[in-house]
Amino acid sequence: MIKYADIIRDSVVDGTGIRVVAFLQGCPRACEGCHNPALQPLEGGREAREEDFAERLLQELTPLHKGITFSGGEPLIQPEALLKVITILKERKPHLDIWVYTGFTFEQVKDLSVMKLIDVLVDGPFVLSARDLTLPFRGSANQRIIDVPRSLEKGEIVELHIG
Ligand code: SF4
User: Fold this and answer.
1) Atom of ligand 1 nearest to the CA of 139
2) Model pTM greater than 0.90?
3) Is the predicted pLDDT of residue 124 greater than 80, yes or no?
4) Which among 85, 11, 19, 7 has a CA at the least distance from the CA of 46?
């Protein structure tokens, strides 16, 4: 089962292009200035079977969509459920662009199996003192937009410099 709060069909602020966004429920942090405090409680949200959740996400896609973003909350506290969901998505649409927002650093999560299926990871917690509204697709300057396949291949972080 996967715990989630909401699915948004058309976002242009959670990654490049038009994207379906899945907001997963629960986050163990309490960042000052958190953009989504309602998604912090681990006991909140709704539950769905991974197969059903993947199907719902696929149904939201149109030819205009570039990909699907997983945000939260903290998606990577459900790594096994997320692995199942993204595995189904990639089986059905191999070229689907998958972004994941996480409060963990890349170094902390790089060995998770699900990382092999993620295209872009926006990493690190939101830091209010580093908040910068001019940065595309992230809230604070400590967060990095990481090309996951190239980073895993090279064994070092490859950042995407967008905008
Ligand atoms: S990691 Fe994200 S969701 Fe979690 S408390 Fe920080 S800003 Fe909020």
Assistant:
1) 7
2) yes
3) yes
4) 7
